[in-house]
Amino acid sequence: MKFSIGKFFAWILVGFLLLGLLGFGITDVLVGRNSNTIAKVGKSKISAQEFARSFQQELRFYSQQLGKDISIDEAKSLGIPQVVLGKLINGKILESSLKRIGLSRGDLAVSEIILKDKTFHDLSGTFSKDIYKSAISRAGLKLNEYEDLIRNELSSSLLLGVQESSQIRNPFIVNLLAKYILEKRSGLAFTLDLSDTKNSYRIDTGEQKDFYQNNLETFRVPETSEISYAILSVKDMAEKIEIQDGEITQFYEDNISNIEREAAYNVDRMIFKLEAEALDSLKRITIGQTSFDELGQEKELSPEDLNLGFLRINEFEESAREQIESSEKGDIIGPLKSGLGYAIYRVNDFQPAFKPTIEELRDNIKTKLSYEKSYDRIDNIINDANEEIAAGANFEDLKKLGPFQQKELNYNSTATLPNYLENPEFKRFLASLEEYPSDILRLPNGSIITAKLENIRDSYIPEFDEIKDKIFDQLALERINQKLRTISESTQSDFSNSSLSAKPTLEEFKEEIFNDIDRSFSNATLTSEIVENVFKIEKKYGFYSNIVDGKLTLFQLTDILEFDETSELTKSIILKIQENLRSQIQNDIGYYFINSLRENVEIDVNSVAIDNILSRF
């Protein structure tokens, strides 16, 4: 089972956001001013270039953390512009304090940081001045500007530095957190679904009426809005659009170079200065004395240092191409002479070439083009539809503009909306409706909708005859659930009274085996709620019973797998826990420290300049 670190460390990402806001409380907001200055912090200025560069860096960072490109709107909703501004302001406050007290780090400390930064290393793992100069230039900085940034960071660290907490040094706390995250459990899940047996129960009308009278308020229907609406979906519009063969051919010719893919190989590479050293290492791997990974660890190379990623055959050095192209997954090749020395390669994976014909892509291209045209046509319809509505058009009149469909909806606080309407903006839209067609609303899926309020039905309690089927189902489910509770207790007792080698046979149950599940696991059988309780079972062969809507899930714990302290995953997570604990403690101290520094610092922000910068992203 693949373990997802991301689920357990999402709070680390939030921590980074909070860090950027340390001491951030800006009351003076200016409009106008010099657009090249986005803020003044005392006598220091924050330039538009500084803000734009820092914002771009934060966007890249959070995009990498979240595994997707963040749009400008998403960045704003996450508060990233405020984070960037907060960090820059705090940096200027610290910079002024450092100058005032004359605290600074020397050239040696700055050079050590730069030399150790793997961003500036070549493939052999050595610092490259050319790569360094090129990278700093691409970032829009001069070398002395970048080195001053490093110096200020190091000096700020001195000012903010705190002794490592005993809580961080105490392995008990760290191991406890690692145990929580990495613990895995195995067991058997027995499920019994009797929800479809409701009709086998005999519940007389008198009992149903008594239940109804004793629980009247539970059957109350809230105030309900009766709504009619007309919707034009992207799909319906696309189905009305004809795509010509010439358009499909043109799209194929324009885009096939981006669609087709040459064969690619995922390869690890290890470089040796001497051929004899490479030959000896290959021999040790071949006879099983060591492995490729262990050899990498001996050379202090991480998996990221070794891996070249997926490369096309012509991207490999010429000496390696023929052997790599004829290799199979897992093959180790070499040593081969390269520009950096003697290389040993390991082939990890292979992606075959993908060169589809136009006929293979015809339907997909047709769908894509029709949907693109559908979006454009709907864009053009919106203004026309709003003008028609303003002129008194009804839903039927709108059909001349496009394939609008008329539908009805009864909406109240307990109603479930169709999936395509289930979003907060549409719910606000419903609350604003009046007795005539509304202006057009664009839904997140691209469809457009107009609606009107037909009637408001007061809250009421339905008559017994209206809901007698619902009452019967509810009473029947109560009896089924009670039966399942009895079965669960009896089954647990049978298991407890049996030897390990003679467990009872449960013919009515569906049985599933679950091995090594962690706290993030969930599926149709073991929901996240059940998994949470599985991890509360105190000892092996204990049970957790869950009964919902006529279905019993009975889980027996068979094994508890503690974390392996020697594994790379464990070491990585323990390191992250230590870093996060240290960061949290430093954040708390930093918050109070920076606030104390900024008490007498005047801060002015040019919000118009910031908005102008953000509009260009």
Please tell me about this protein's structure.
With 617 residues, the protein is an alpha+beta fold. It folds into four domains: 5-166 and 570-615, Triger factor/SurA peptide-binding fold (Orthogonal Bundle), CATH 1.10.4030.10; 184-219 and 465-561, no CATH class; 224-246 and 359-457; 261-351, Chitinase A, domain 3 (Roll), CATH 3.10.50.40. 49% of the residues lie in helices and 18% in strands. It contains 24 helices and 16 strands. The strands form four sheets. Strands 1-16-2-3 form a four-stranded mixed beta sheet. A four-stranded antiparallel beta sheet has the order 13-4-15-14, sandwiched between helices. Strands 10-5-12-11 form a four-stranded antiparallel beta sheet. Helix 10 crosses helix 23 and helix 13 crosses helix 18.
Number of separate strands: 16
Q: Look at the structure and give the CATH class of the largest domain.
A: Mainly Alpha
Overall, the morphology is extended
Helix content: 40-55%
Write down the CATH topology of the largest domain: Triger factor/SurA peptide-binding fold
- Most strands sheet: 4 strands, mixed
Summing up helix and strand content along with how strands pair, one would put the structural category as alpha+beta
- Which CATH architecture of the largest domain? Orthogonal Bundle
Please give the order of strands in the largest beta sheet: 1-16-2-3
Poorly predicted runs = 1-34, 162-168
Average pLDDT reading: 82
Strand content of the residues, in percent? Answer: 15-25%
The gyration radius over C-alpha positions equals: 33 Å
CATH superfamily of the largest domain: Porin chaperone SurA, peptide-binding domain
Number of domains: 4
